[in-house]
Amino acid sequence: MDTGSSAQDGLFDESLVERVEQPSDVPMDANAGARKRFKAFEPDAVMLVPPSLEEWLPQGHLARFIGELVDGELDLTRFHASYAKAKGQPPYDPRLMLRILLYGYCVGVRSSRELEKACTDVVAFRWLAAQQAPDFRSIARFRERHLAALANVFLQALELCRAAGMVSLGHVALDGTKVRANASRHKAMS
């Protein structure tokens, strides 16, 4: 960079900029951009009535289905029973945690940290969590504490899908038998 050059007062080296001449037959209006109207943009505007997430989430959205499933169809007694003798701070409602976990599994968000972030950034997660944002530790502890109950919830969901005719259930069997083959033991890695 040439620091002794007085031509470089701006951000760019003028020798790198190609000048384009305006055709003389086209009149140029110096205030053309000043009279253009733009849509209102007021980032600091205060709202008298805060927006409702209920209006932001479309009616047929998957998050609404998950919310109805958890609130009305699933048996959550195993979750509530585990808190019968718990002491300390009040925990998050198991319905809230299940809603964000199930929706996260459906849309591919499985990490506790990503779920925490989604509860503040993504409208569907915010709607499911009712504007609460559990931290990643709470989500991970809930998942770890209720592992057996979560397996039961997945079975309940499968049963509901089967009853609705959405899936057909069957058996899948895997065989892990090792068979001796005519191959080099240095090339065949387990």
What does the radius of gyration come to? 30 Å
Measured as a percent range, the helix fraction is: 40-55%
Determine the mean pLDDT.
82
Largest sheet: none
Assign an overall shape.
extended
SSE order, one letter for each helix or strand: HHHHHHHH
Count of helix runs: 8
Number of strands: 0
How far the N terminus sits from the C terminus, by CA atoms, comes to 57 Å
Quickly give the structural class: mainly alpha
Question: Beta-strand percentage?
Answer: under 5%
Q: In terms of per-residue confidence, which ranges show pLDDT below 50 for 5 or more consecutive residues? A: 1-5
Question: What topology does this entry show?
Answer:
Blueprint: H1 53-56, H2 62-73, H3 77-81, H4 94-107, H5 112-121, H6 123-128, H7 136-145, H8 147-163
Helix pairs in contact: 2-4, 5-7
Structure in words:
With 190 residues, the protein is mainly α. It has a domain at 54-163. It is 41% helix and 0% strand. The protein contains eight helices and no strands. The protein is extended, with a radius of gyration of 30 Å.
What features would you highlight for this structure?
mainly alpha; single chain; disordered N terminus; 190 residues; 41% helix
What's this, in brief?
The chain has 190 residues and is mostly helical.
